[in-house]
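Re: beginner question about structure tokens

> Can someone show what the tokenized structure looks like for a real chain? I only ever see the sequence side.

Sure, here's an example I had lying around. Input first:
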Amino acid sequence: MRLNGAMGARAYRHAGVDSGGSEQAVAALVGVLRTIDSGGASRSVLAAGHYAAVMRLDDRTGLALSTDGVGSKVIVAEQLRRFDTVGVDCVAMNVNDLICVGAEPIALLDYLAVERADAEMLRQLGEGLKRGAEEAQVEIPGGELAQLPEVIRGHPSPYGFDIAAACFGTVALEAIVTGARIEPGDAVVGLPSSGVHSNGLTLARRVLPDLGEHPAGLGGRSVGDELLEPTTIYVRAVRELLVSGLDVRGLAHITGDGLLNLLRLEADVGYRIDAPLPVPAIFDLIAERGEIPQSELFEIFNMGCGFCCVVPDAQVGPAVDVLAQRHPGTAVIGQVTARAGQIELPSAGLTGRRGQGFLADS
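And the corresponding structure tokens:
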């Protein structure tokens, strides 16, 4: 469980999501959970706020844990009655977090809450889960289906559902990646996203309500096609990097809060992203239709970069080579700086800080 780094963007609040208020709510919840007395010594290895938790199994091995869903992307699926992709998103959101601590994902348990247990809808959801599990090389040994017509209401009814999961993996305690060894001068490598992924859909749907529209900038694809494009799964590439012998110092899944997610890594450093990856056309369309400034876009969306790896500058060439084999377009996007708690985006004229989001440079 984490606290969002940004204090909330105006456009997102107008769309119905108050990330500033949610920070206080999550803090209240976490404040209680931190007082749990299990009756024995804690097995937790990492402090709260990392992408995944790690529990000590013995002196050498940790059990990595993560949990997440796909947010309001389910509404797009309901409106289009296309359910075969969001299972991929559910797997992706979990395994991409788990690998950020250097873990190898091994299994995922899904939770499906539905308004009505429709066989064809569940078959399609299963197809997406299967595809995502195979891409991530994990098993789905079990799960839960709850039929909750009084809780779940579809868009339209009776196609309502929600999907979430918990993911499990293993990691050698001596090999946990926290970001603590990151130093100024290290290189930041960005892996391209497939589009919106599974964050910011409330705002995207608000400014692009016609899912059947085919805007010129989307190359013949509809708005619905773009919004349902599954979240990229980075497991294989990152695992290959971790076993390559290169010094992997930080791993960051770029989700809600965008590149501000880099500040979740433990090192007391900053990041200058002076060569960002190309921005997919869907984000330009969202900006145009919603009249949303760059500062808010970079605070809400991944803006074309779905994952970041931090390595020593001297090893950046081999690192890019490893990652680009599975994710063409991978490139060095910036450097680590000594300006702690600060993300600089000079091409957009923005600077992001903990608890403040992105602000225009004065």
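Each token stands for a local structural state, so reading them left to right follows the chain. Confidence is low (pLDDT under 50) at residues 3-8.
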